[in-house]
Write a structure and sequence with these properties.
single chain, about 260 residues, alpha+beta, tt1808, chain A, six-stranded mixed beta sheet, 16 strands, elongated, disordered N terminus
């Protein structure tokens, strides 16, 4: 049987592969693809080997193509790209967002917040986690989840929500995002909406530019209340009694290295 031209390769039968294995191995080695059929059904594919560095740039190119090309991608496609990439990325409303390295100022704030949160939750059921830490947020009435990496999250449902591979699959009670010029709109609109619809109870937005903290409390998937805390005041959690952050101390003597 004569091979059928297929994209940059050929489609052949399993019998033909057995009879001409060397020929088709050479064909694949020349960066071509061979699809094998059995009883008229495609059952396997021979593809050229991709080195680790080639795989890195291939997956990076795919992720960038989705991010800047305005393409939508399914949750399954995102996970395929993500699992094969070393890049930090998020999946929101069917779009991929690559995450840049945080600034010094961002990390100073993150460190101070973590110390405060960790001290409060010491010896309590809930646990505090820092980014990068993937969370799959299942939004009400949406088929596919969003996958995001909050700067800080508080998880109170770890029992029965951690996979064998150690992946957290629950819903955080509280999440924190530190705003920057590149993420401000996404954090204040898209992420707020995702957190609201996925059952998160409380959302903190830390704004280094305005030097304030905005706290949203959600109830029944709606915004129940919110408040902005400026320098000179103390930010108070709506959900966790006694969890407080001194706004003045949080932004005190920060290195001015951008948001």
């Amino acid at each position: 049987m004569k091979p059928i031209d297929y994209m940059e390769g050929v489609v052949i039968t399993a019998t033909e592969l057995k009879q001409n294995l060397g020929k088709y191995m050479d064909f694949v080695e020349q960066q071509n693809e061979v699809v094998i059929t059995k009883n008229g059904v495609k059952v396997a594919r021979l593809t050229p080997y991709i080195t680790d560095i080639e795989q890195y740039f291939l997956m990076r190119e795919r992720a960038l193509d989705y991010q800047y090309g305005g393409k939508k991608v399914s949750y399954e496609e995102f996970m395929e790209i993500y699992e094969k990439s070393t890049l930090r990325m998020e999946f929101i409303n069917g779009e991929i967002y690559l995450l840049s390295s945080p600034s010094i100022r961002h990390q100073e704030i993150l460190g101070r917040l973590y110390l405060t949160f960790n001290e409060y939750f010491k010896n309590k059921k809930c646990r505090v986690f820092l980014a990068p830490f993937d969370v799959h947020f299942h939004k009400k009435e949406f088929k596919e989840p969003d996958v995001m990496q909050p700067d800080i999250l508080v998880a109170c449902d770890l029992e029965n929500n951690v996979t064998e591979k150690g992946r957290y699959m629950g819903t955080p009670t509280l999440v924190v995002e530190i705003l920057s010029d590149s993420t401000r709109s996404k954090d204040m609109i898209d992420k707020l909406n995702t957190y609201r619809l996925s059952g998160v109870r409380e959302y903190w937005l830390i704004d280094p530019k305005q030097e304030n903290i905005m706290i949203y409390c959600f109830e029944d998937f709606e915004i129940d209340k919110y408040k902005t805390f400026e320098r000179g005041s103390t930010a108070l959690s709506f959900v966790f009694n006694g969890l407080v952050v001194d706004v003045e101390n949080l932004f005190w003597e920060l290195i001015q290295a951008g948001g």
